[in-house]
Amino acid sequence: MLMSSAALMDGRGLFEILGINCYICKVMMSMDDVNTLKAALLYIIKNSEPNRCDVYGIVKTAFYAQQMHLSSTGSPLFKDEICALPFGPVPSSIYDVLKMARGDENEMHFHQADGLLEVSASIGWEDERFFIKEEPDMDYLSSSDIQSLDAAIDRVTNMSFNDILSATHGREWERAFKSKKRGKKIMDTLKIAEEGGADDSTLEYLKEYLELEKALG
Questions:
Q1: What percent of the chain has pLDDT over 90?
Q2: How many domains, the chain?
Q3: Are strands 123-126 and 129-132 parallel, antiparallel or unpaired?
Q4: What is the pTM of this model?
């Protein structure tokens, strides 16, 4: 049974309805990766309309920004895994940061040594909305990053809850969500880019990028 956007305005419901906890395993990040994710997340919160600064609006904006960057450049905007949760794709580390910003002690304990706890300290939570406590460090965002972020913010601003729900439940989300594998239901990065409109040359470039990332560990 689907919930309305009004029902999701309750803060506790927003977190519970998105799906399972995402601290089953960590995304391994360098400090540059953490700082880039932080800059992107702060940029989204700073530039989104107040009614899009709840958890649903932020994670969907982050997903669209990632998909747009993947499909246009063949590389991720930030390092993260996109999980298929009941209400659509969710960047798992960004979701964890938002939970910590809201006071989730389990997440705080899990991320106490990987830099994401410090990211959460730069974000505040009040009246069911997130706000920034510091400005995004623009040195960590390229012109293509900003272009994708702005396009994603604009897209989510002009979509209803049901529009977002329908648009993000594509074939790759369905495949991952219905997977019988235990743990996080991780969506395939190449498929995300393909569904975002990436052409063959961009997909090939992304494939090589991902293979190199895997080889480097």
A1: 72
A2: 1
A3: antiparallel
A4: 0.88
